[in-house]
Structure to design on (423 residues):
């Protein structure tokens, strides 16, 4: 197939890498890709989605895969479908599940899907009243719109929650994205990332993963896009998967059909498990990054087949096969992440001589650019060292061994990825 992948991060790199390793050979193009995706694909840079759809038609693209949320919310799927192209992802209407937390919470409420008690409001008085009525702290305050993962404040006191409300409603914290807010109860449990590949009607659930959102070891410091992930997590049992299917995924797919916005694409379910009950924190409408980087290599089913069948309403004919293995991904970020940008730094990867390590690990490149055949870290999350094995410990050890072979000025990573599964 001729496959087009939208995006430039480690998530998109890992999708492309998995496709490039399939038995059947494919022709892969990234828009825009990064400094490493050109090692197995071609990079193009077309910003206008109408022009990109025309390019896809002219170049006989059989399947387009969209990595990040912004193009989905902006309607890239609608534009491609209007041109008769096959694209895997939700319509802009269905992407509101991520684009608007108010929309998402109202869908959860309307279809009786378990979620934290909340109010949605744009009134300071209403928010204050709800906060005053709450029996427990912390209290969670969320901006409605997309805030690059930063629009959630976990306030430890009622005063702090009210300050968060003020900052959002006045527009000073997140601009227009904070003009509507959610105030909700705090859920105390452990967090999971669960991904359902959906075609509007049918779905396939991938093994549950855990992300590590805080920048520092022991889940300290500010939130990031994610500093590492592992899967499958032993914290999930069959009972939780069943509850997720029956109480969450099926009612969501049915509900979205009723809303006139059938959900096609990756439904990323942010779950908090409280006393063995899965409660929904949020939906995203695309793969998690770094979760994607370990899930793609764990698929035995060709990734291109999974997404093609997802895009063409054929998931009912797919018998998904997952490798009997574990994966751990450790993010190597730049010195100043997530506070500010960092100077570009040359990346050096040692020659790996250990055959076992070579076979069971790889790098997924993210924030990198190439200058004269040399790779430079350009800031943010630079790359991920991914290790695989027959146990989480083996996978984790391989990921960290690989980290030791990668060098760039200011490199930093967490040293405790997968700790929840290993303690
Ligand atoms: P969200 O963007 O809604 O996923 O929120 C970002 C992070 O904030 C989540 O991954 C959780 O770790 C945390 N969070 C969000 N809502 C809650 C809640 N109601 N209770 C506890 N933690 C939460
Ligand atoms: N890893 C969390 C996210 O992609 O939003």
């Amino acid at each position: 197939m001729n496959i087009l992948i939208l995006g430039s991060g480690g998530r998109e790199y890992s999708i492309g890498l998995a496709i490039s390793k399939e038995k059947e050979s494919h022709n892969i193009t990234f828009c825009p890709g990064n400094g490493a995706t050109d090692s197995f694909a071609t990079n193009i840079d077309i910003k206008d989605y109408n022009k990109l759809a025309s390019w896809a038609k002219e170049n006989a693209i059989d399947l387009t895969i969209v990595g990040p949320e912004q193009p989905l919310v902006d309607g890239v799927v609608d534009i491609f479908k209007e041109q008769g192209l096959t694209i895997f992802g939700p319509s802009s209407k269905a992407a509101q599940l991520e684009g608007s937390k108010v929309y998402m919470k109202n869908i959860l409420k309307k279809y009786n899907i378990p979620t934290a008690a909340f109010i949605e409001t744009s009134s300071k008085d209403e928010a204050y009243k709800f906060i005053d009525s709450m029996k427990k702290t912390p209290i969670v305050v969320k901006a409605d719109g997309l805030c690059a993962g930063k629009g959630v404040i976990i306030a430890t006191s009622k005063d702090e929650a009210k300050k968060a409300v003020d900052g959002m409603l006045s527009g000073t914290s997140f601009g227009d994205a904070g003009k509507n807010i959610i105030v909700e109860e705090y859920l105390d449990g452990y967090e999971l990332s669960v991904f359902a590949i959906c075609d509007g009607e049918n779905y396939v659930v991938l093994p549950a993963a855990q992300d590590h959102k805080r920048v520092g070891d022991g889940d300290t410091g500010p939130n990031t896009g994610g500093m590492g992930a592992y899967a499958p997590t032993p914290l999930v049992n069959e009972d939780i998967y069943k509850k997720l299917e029956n109480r969450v995924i099926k009612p969501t797919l049915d509900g979205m059909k009723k809303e006139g916005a059938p959900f096609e694409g990756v439904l990323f379910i942010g779950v908090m498990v409280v006393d063995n009950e899965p409660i929904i924190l949020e939906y995203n409408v695309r793969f998690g990054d770094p979760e994607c980087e370990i899930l793609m290599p764990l698929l035995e089913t060709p990734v291109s087949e999974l997404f093609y069948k997802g895009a063409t309403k054929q998931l009912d004919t797919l018998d998904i096969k997952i490798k009997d293995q574990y994966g751990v991904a450790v993010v190597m970020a730049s010195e100043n992440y997530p506070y500010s940008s960092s100077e570009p730094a040359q990346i050096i990867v040692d020659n790996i001589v250990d055959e076992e390590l070579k076979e069971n690990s790889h790098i997924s490149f993210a924030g990198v650019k190439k200058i004269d055949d040399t790779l430079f870290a350009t800031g943010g999350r630079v790359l991920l060292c991914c290790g695989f094995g027959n146990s989480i410990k083996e996978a984790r050890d391989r990921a960290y061994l690989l980290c030791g072979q990668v060098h760039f000025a200011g490199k930093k990573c967490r040293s405790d990825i997968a700790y929840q599964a290993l303690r």
Observations:
- The longest helix spans residues 238-258.
- The chain has a mean pLDDT of 96.
- The pocket of adenosine monophosphate (ligand 1) is lined by residues 116, 140, 142, 152, 184, 186-187, 191, 213, 270, 281-282 (CB under 6 Å).
- The chain has four domains: 2-91, 123-179, 190-317, 326-422.
